[in-house]
Structures are given as structure tokens and as C-alpha cells.
């Protein structure tokens, strides 16, 4: 396992992060603990969760897992999604952030959270309100660094400007989606992160299962996230994504490597990414992603794989300048 520094924080993390969205859902407590222990065996010290994963159960299970090794673990969790039926049990208001960080600390059985993510963009709460709440939590030692997930580059840049102007703790870590089929992050978010020396952990390196070898132009499994869950089915509904998967599957067969392994290794090889987030429902799934740490990805190999996908348009209409 190799380790990288998260932006300018000085914190060293494994170049794979394990995401615990399956804990308490697709993975029961026993399976979850086995996967956690396997991650620790290979040197992973970076674990990502959210308060809304299984409505707090993921945090509870992860809290039990880290109890004996808390000081060796770099921990993230998130706030934004609904945590109850009440109209105020959601969003990025000071009220909700302060309430939910206490609930997360209790479930995780810890006194601090290394990186606390705003899980999504809140269009009704001023950024200043949310950022000041995070700054207060950092000053209290309940979180070490603010972080942000699923925001557009302009929203992140605006927040960085507010934090600088108001002398508030700034975002030090970004969590966007990134995989061979979904590469929008390359256009503005990764350049922003590299320019501002921010860490980046990316989720969905397998495209919800699209890049595991099970999907193609004329075939898909009877069960799976892209089949059973509307959110994922809609996200990859365009036929072009199945075409990418088809080309990738053929390439992996030629290279004699598991698609899931190569998909994770490809994401990991981007110089602007601190660590891809891997997830699994069981140990067998986990092993194929863990195998990515053994892949020696060269620049030329990465370019070959990238060519199987669709390069997103540049950030401006002056496309001739990208040639």
C-alpha cells in the first residue's frame, strides 16, 4: 500500500479509501467487520461513511470496527440528506449541521471526525451559514477539516473565496464521482483541486457495477445496482455508457485482468486524485478492488484505457485551444 498526503493538511492516507455505504444494508454487521479487517490487513487507514447510510447504521458498525484502532484511522462522514421526517432534519443549515455532527460522533464512538463533508449542495441555505458552522466545529475540535461532495466547481470555488474573505476554515477535501464512463470531473473539479492544493477522493470507480464485466451493449445481469435501483439506472441510461463498458470488457480480456481491478487502478493513477473510494457487499467483491494496489499503471497504459472512453468537452467553447 502506498500513502499520499491529503492536500496541504499533512495527513497521510492510503491510496485506497474504503467506503462503508454497504454497512448495515447490503452487508450485515459480521460481513462488514470482515471487510474492515481485510482492508486493515492490506494497509488501508482511510474510511468513508455518511450519516444517511442505512440511516446511521453504517456509522454505528464502523464505530465498532475502529474502536480498537481509532488513532490509526482517518475518518470521514457527511451531512445533508434527510435523517427523519421533520422538515428541518435535512440540508446544510447551522441547526442541522450542529445536530448531526453530534449524532455522528455518538454513533462513531469518537471525539472527532478528520474530514466532515457537506454531502450535497443546499440551494436554500447561504454558503456563509454552512461554512461558519463548519468553522465553529473545527475550532471546537469536533471536526479537523471541512470537506465537500457533489458540488460543482463554481460552487466550490465560491466557497473557497468566502472562506478566505471571512477567515473561515476552508474545504481541504473534495469527493466527486469519477470512473472511466463518467469523466466530467476532469474538466474543472480536478484542475481546481490541483490548483488549490486540495485532496480528492472519488466515488463509484466501477460505475455502479457497469465496469465489472457484467454489462455491455447487448447484455446485463438479472440483478445489480444498475438494474434494481432507479437512481443508478437513470445515471447510466445512455447507450454510450454500455458501449464504453463493452470496449473496456474486451480490452480487459485481452490484457487478462479483471475489469473491476483495472477500473480502480485507472482512477487511482490520475495525479490529482488522493484515493479512489472502493466499496463492496462481500469479501469476494472487495478482493477484486483491492487487487488494484498491485497494478503498475504507466502513463502509456493509462492513455490506452482512457481512449476506450469518451473525453468530456472542455470548460469553454474554444475547443481548438485543447488541440
Structure description:
The chain is globular, with a radius of gyration of 19 Å. Helix 2 crosses helix 3 (94-108). It starts with a strand and ends in a 17-residue tail after the last helix. The protein has helices at 29-41, 57-66, 94-108, 127-140, 153-166, 189-195, 225-228, 230-235, 239-255, 259-268, 283-290, 299-306; strands at residues 3-5, 12-14, 17-19, 46-48, 74-79, 113-118, 143-149, 173-175, 199-202, 275-278. With 323 residues, it is an alpha/beta fold. It has a domain at 3-175: TIM Barrel (Alpha-Beta Barrel). Helix 5 links the parallel strand 7 (143-149) and strand 8. It contains twelve helices and ten strands. The strands form two sheets. An eight-stranded parallel barrel has the order 3-4-5-6-7-8-9-10, surrounded by five helices.
Q: Which descriptors would you attach to this protein?
A:
12 helices; two-stranded antiparallel ribbon; TIM Barrel; 10 strands; alpha/beta
Task: State the oligomer.
Answer: single chain
CATH architecture of the domain at 3-175: Alpha-Beta Barrel
Q: Report the CATH topology name of the domain at 3-175.
A: TIM Barrel
What structural category do the secondary elements indicate?
alpha/beta
Full CATH superfamily name of the domain at 3-175: NADP-dependent oxidoreductase domain
Radius of gyration from the alpha-carbon trace, in angstroms = 19 Å
Label the overall shape.
Answer: globular
CATH classification, class level of the domain at 3-175: Alpha Beta
Amino acid at each position: 500500500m502506498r500513502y499520499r498526503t491529503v492536500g496541504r493538511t499533512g495527513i497521510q492516507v492510503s491510496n485506497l479509501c474504503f467506503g462503508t455505504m454497504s454497512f448495515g444494508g447490503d452487508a450485515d454487521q459480521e460481513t462488514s467487520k470482515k471487510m474492515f479487517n481485510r482492508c486493515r490487513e492490506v494497509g488501508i487507514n482511510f474510511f468513508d461513511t455518511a450519516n444517511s447510510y442505512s440511516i446511521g447504521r453504517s456509522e454505528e458498525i464502523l464505530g465498532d470496527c475502529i474502536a480498537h484502532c481509532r488513532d490509526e484511522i482517518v475518518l470521514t462522514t457527511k451531512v445533508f440528506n434527510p435523517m427523519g421526517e421533520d422538515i428541518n432534519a435535512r440540508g446544510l443549515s447551522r441547526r442541522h449541521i450542529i445536530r448531526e455532527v453530534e449524532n455522528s460522533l455518538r454513533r462513531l464512538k469518537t471525539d472527532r471526525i478528520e474530514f466532515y463533508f457537506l454531502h450535497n449542495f443546499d440551494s436554500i441555505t447561504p454558503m456563509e451559514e454552512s461554512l461558519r458552522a463548519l468553522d465553529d466545529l473545527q475550532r471546537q475540535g469536533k471536526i479537523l477539516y471541512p470537506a465537500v461532495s457533489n458540488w460543482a466547481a463554481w460552487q466550490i470555488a465560491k466557497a473557497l473565496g468566502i472562506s478566505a474573505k471571512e477567515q473561515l476554515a476552508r474545504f481541504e477535501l473534495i469527493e466527486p464521482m469519477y470512473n472511466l464512463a463518467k469523466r466530467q470531473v476532469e474538466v474543472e473539479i480536478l484542475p481546481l483541486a490541483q490548483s488549490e492544493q486540495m485532496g480528492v477522493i472519488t466515488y463509484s470507480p466501477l460505475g455502479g457495477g457497469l465496469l465489472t464485466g457484467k454489462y455491455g451493449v447487448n447484455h446485463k445481469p438479472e440483478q445489480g445496482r444498475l438494474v434494481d435501483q432507479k437512481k443508478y439506472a437513470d445515471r447510466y441510461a445512455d447507450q454510450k455508457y454500455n458501449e464504453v463498458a463493452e470496449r473496456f470488457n474486451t480490452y480487459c480480456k485481452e490484457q487478462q485482468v479483471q475489469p473491476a481491478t483495472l477500473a480502480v487502478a485507472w482512477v487511482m493513477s490520475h495525479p490529482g486524485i488522493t484515493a479512489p473510494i472502493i466499496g463492496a457487499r462481500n469479501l469476494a467483491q472487495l478482493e477484486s478492488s483491492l487487487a488494484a494496489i498491485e497494478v503498475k499503471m504507466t502513463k502509456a497504459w493509462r492513455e490506452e484505457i482512457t481512449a476506450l472512453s469518451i473525453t468530456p468537452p472542455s470548460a469553454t467553447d474554444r475547443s481548438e485551444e485543447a488541440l
